[in-house]
Amino acid sequence: MAVTEDVTGQPDAAPTTTAPAIGLTGISKAFGPVQANKDISMTVQRGTIHGIVGENGAGKSTLMSILYGFYKADKGEIKIGGVPTIIHNSDDAIRAGIGMVHQHFMLVQNFTVLENVVLGAEDGALLRPSLAKARDILTSLAKDYELEVDPDAIVGDLAVGLQQRVEILKALYRQADILILDEPTGVLTPSEADHLFRILEGLKAQGKTIILITHKLREIMAITDTVSVMRRGEMTATVKTAETSPAQLAELMVGRRVLLKIEKAPAQVGETVMEIRDLRVVDEDGVERLKSINMDLKRGEILGVAGVAGNGQSALLEVLGGIAAATSGTVTMNGEAMDLTHEADAGKRRDRRIAHVPEDRHKLGLIMPYSAWENACFGYHDRSEYQAKAGLLNRLFMRDDARAKIEKYDVRPPNCDLKAANFSGGNQQKIVIAREIESNPDVLLVGQPTRGVDIGAIEFIHNQIVALRDQGKAILLVSVELEEILALSDRIIVMFDGKISGERLPSETDENDLGLLMAGIDPKANQ
Amino acid sequence: MNILKTLVGAAALLGSATLALADGHADFKPAVIFDLGGKFDRSFNQASFEGATRFSEEFDVEFREFEIQSDAQREQALRRFAEQGNNPIVVAGFAYGSAMETVAAEFPDTSFAIIDMVVDLPNVRSVVFNEHEGSFLVGMMAAMKSETGKVGFVGGMDIPLIRKFACGYVQGVKAANPDAEVFQNMTGTTGAAWNDPVKGGELAKGQMDQGADVVYHAAGGTGRGVLQAAADAGKLGIGVDSNQNYLHPGNVLTSMLKRVDVAVYNAFKDSMEGNFTAGFSVLGLAEDGVGYAVDENNETLISEDMMKAVEDAKAKIISGDIKVHNYMDDNSCPAS
Amino acid sequence: MKKSLPTWADVVLIPAINVFLAFFVAGLVVLFIGEDPIRAMGIMIQGSLGSSYGIGYTLFYATNFIFTGLAVAVAFHASIFNIGGEGQAGVAGVGVALVCLTVDQTHWLLALPLAIMGGAVFGAGWAAIPAWLQAKRGSHIVITTIMFNYIAAALIIYLLNNYLKVPGAMALETRGFAEGAQIPAMHEIASWFGASISRTPMNISFFLALLASFLVWLLIWRSRIGYEIRAFGFSEKAAVYAGIKPVKIIMIAMLLSGALAGLMAINTVMGSEKRLVLDSVLGAGFVGIAVALMGRSHPIGVILAALLFGVLYQGGAELAFEIPSIPSQMILTIQALVILFTGSLENMVRFPLEKLFLRLNRGTA
């Protein structure tokens, strides 16, 4: 964006060199009952790299989507270069000089680099003049910023790091002054990430403003000038990077919460029931979700897995629960190896007495249009007690069974004909917990047991999990709620970037320590 | 006019339905059912429509009609008309064979006529034509008119009936010019081949590209494309069933007439006069059931010599001096 | 998501309004071409329901639609859109014909179960290939089943032309089945009980269709596999979590779907035509989609919707007989309007109605 001096004497009306690149005031956005952004104010200075950190779901992406015109804020004001700007759509954003590099690239895979760069910004009906012009601009951009990409390569053939460069080139070609990068290193190798940072430094040197969204504190510390921390839809702080530490950021990110008190006896840890060795998972997109995981799960203990969402915990649960296949590695159950290939399924895991309370009860744990009694044996419906004659289900038994579970687990309302969708979140979760615990497993996998669950139900669910432990069962508890991990676990491991970044006993750790481990930094390793 | 006609028809129907229940066929209600392609196909179906219309105008008698939309409606249409007391019921098209067998047996008191097919029942008149005889004559004309010595034939659906046309045509061509070459193509193997003028035009063009300068079609609605292609190329087409000379005056050499209209007209008239006879009826050159059309649209195309030769052949066929082989007798053709 | 409509409104009121709207617009169309819509409507109702002849034809068509509607419904429950009913029923016709041509010297009591097997196996077989491609390769089943309709049509033409038709005959059809493979028509069944009704193609397959409806209900709502099919249809992820194999469900649902579509060949090929003709399906495969949509994929709904479409088909044919000035295309238009209103435009009625009920509820609360 060209800098024009104000000649008419209206200092607010035109951008000036001193005005901040972006000024947000009082931005709020709700999706139904969920407040994704609450009264957010933020200032980004021109020519700086500004980091935004926060856990998944903290509201970072929503905020950036408002800035880029994907969503409209319910309240608040956006100033670009000091000028109040209303951004209805991405065209408005581009016109205001904002470019965005999305986490998932918005590229046409079978177009060339040049065609992708020009797409949507053609000068006229004929493509050739635009392409020629773009080629010149691309050449000079490549020279200035280390952004070398073969303009005639087909995008689909390029490595992810190069595709990301094309996204950056697209934004620069549209004369973006402000560049937003959403989790840019998530898909990059370390060397590609280093190259990206050099590019960003170069852009900053040329006076561009960069917003970097990430949950990796290391990157924040390495490259940003200032950093804003978001938690649960609110902006909790904005600090100069030089004046902060990963520990402080972790605390700001995770927050201090009132510890839950759970009455539990000391664990009576027995022999190892499940052994995980060198477990690796590479997903369909070629991203390594689990990198050589080793752990043991013992009878009579709750093993807590902490971590920011998206660091491999889900993949771990899916592999152990039989939903996804492992790429390599072994898992033994009571000394016997488990089939981790695509041939295995969740039913076979249940046969091996591994029960699974999934992280997402809406999408996985329950069939929402099914009534409670149909859900109460979901996954175990092939067991002989549920069968009547000739392939039909024994509905009478299913109902009796469901009624017993509903009573024992205090599901409200105690109506087994009600559809799952019509129960509250806590009672839905009780149905899932009841079903899985009552299947009498040796190992219980639990993911986010109290997400979206009211306080009363949380206590009940926690007590049920502890009771199961006291029966000598092994429990693997995955949660992003640190207080839950600290309150329930007998042993804690922390996952970061697909690996185990540390292991602690609850007595010798606290939220700050775990927060750093969750950001990939082990404070005790340096001691 | 149209509304009036329907109202009259409906009124007559309502009245007669009760009558029919009371004492059988109280009044004369002929009906005709057309084959796929519809009554305005300028060919086979249109000929039967014209026959019915001519009868209707001459004797001032309304007739019922129905255009089927799918194969399944054949039986329903027949039964529907029979149940409502229509008599006689005339259908045009071999595809009605099995439906006719079923329905005619159910209504032994109703007279039926079927064209192009033989149904052996005591109340069914089966009318077939000696298309090979008419085709022989237009084949002769084609060979005599051709300057390249190459002529073409485009058939509709590949069935014995159409091979019968082709075989007669080839025999006629060879009779006039033993060295002539005949290109033959069939449009398809399903009912859709009767109504695909685009493909018909393409086939005709292909034949003309190989040198044919006269193309004869026996392809129903598909033939419109054949005649169009011939006219566009400045070559000659030969029409079929109805007189199609008027479609492209000067570019249609002649039309092989198959008097479907006569068959329909006669069935109606015989029945009205109480002379309806069931059984097998063959209409050939001798009965004027087939022939060729000469009118103001094509008289300049046909020379005295051609006329003389064709008339001579016609007389000899009628007298039996010339035997034209009927493909359907043994499903083979001696000439090609 | 809270339910904003009472069940009776969902099941009865909305379809009724849809049908009414469809007939209203169709009436306008009839008015446009200068005919009396009331009279046209009267002819359609009278012609389809006013006599044993009309009812026979209506139920004959309805039998086809019940089978194809059930076929689409079963696949719907697994969240699979089977548009291939047309091809599956067509190929099943070949299966039925082959059985009938082989055993028609015996007795229909033997021929019928064999033909049912033949139709079901051929129909299921034709559905198996798209199902396999979907389950194993992710090829979109809507696309593949549509394509397989064309392949089926070409295959049937080829088989009829080269192997099945009577040598030297002109019609593209097999020989008629002999006595031993002719299942009782409705008027024959009626005569066993001393009743006399008009001859129509309606036959014992109608009862087969009702039986199939009951079995489908049993399967979907009472059996273990139905429980798994519905769970898979509601949420594939949840099904996988519960150990239900997607490949198995897709295959089973599609095989059942194809087999059900195939059973309509019993009605047409074995019951009505008593021979294999070129087009034995008559678009019923596509009508089945509308029937299943309108019937909410429930067998009772499918039966009712099939009856409605039977009325439309038979009534439409009567209209063509009685008022020849209403062109056949116009009758197709009327049928299409009903499909449009009941199938695609359903939400047009649903949303205002939901608002209305919401307001009513608020008023009473």
List keywords for this structure.
heterotrimer, B: 336 residues, alpha/beta, Rossmann fold, 2 domains, six-stranded parallel beta sheet, six-stranded mixed beta sheet, 12 strands, 44% helix, disordered N terminus, C: 365 residues, mainly alpha, 15 helices, 0% strand, globular
General description of the model:
The complex is a heterotrimer of chains A (about 525), B (about 325) and C (about 375). Chain A folds into 3 domains: about 1-95 and about 175-260, P-loop containing nucleotide triphosphate hydrolases (Rossmann fold), CATH 3.40.50.300; about 105-175, no CATH class; about 270-370 and about 425-520, 3-Layer(aba) Sandwich (Rossmann fold). Helix content of chain A is about 30%, strand content about 25%. Chain A is built from 17 helices and 20 strands. In chain A, the strands form 4 sheets. Chain A has a 6-stranded mixed β-sheet with strand order 6-7-8-3-9-10, with helices on both faces. In chain A, strands 16-17-18-13-19-20 form a 6-stranded mixed β-sheet, with helices on both faces. In chain A, strands 2-1-4-5 form a 4-stranded antiparallel β-sheet, with helices on one face. Chain B is α/β, with parallel strands linked by helices and about 325 residues long. Helix content of chain B is about 45%, strand content about 20%. Chain B contains 11 helices and 12 strands. Chain B has helices at about 1-25, 45-60, 75-85, 95-105, 130-145, 160-175, 195-210, 225-230, 260-270, 305-320, 325-330, and strands at about 30-35, 65, 90, 110-115, 125-130, 150-155, 180-190, 215-220, 235-240, 250-260, 280-285, 290. In chain B, strands 2-1-3-4-5-11 form a 6-stranded parallel β-sheet, sandwiched between helices. Chain B has a 6-stranded mixed β-sheet with strand order 7-6-8-9-10-12, with helices on both faces. Chain C has about 375 residues and is mainly alpha-helical. Chain C has a domain at about 70-300. In chain C, helix 9 packs across helix 11. The chains are: A alpha/beta (about 525), B alpha/beta (about 325), C mainly alpha (about 375). Chains in contact: A-C, B-C. The interface between B and C is medium-sized, with 33 and 32 residues.
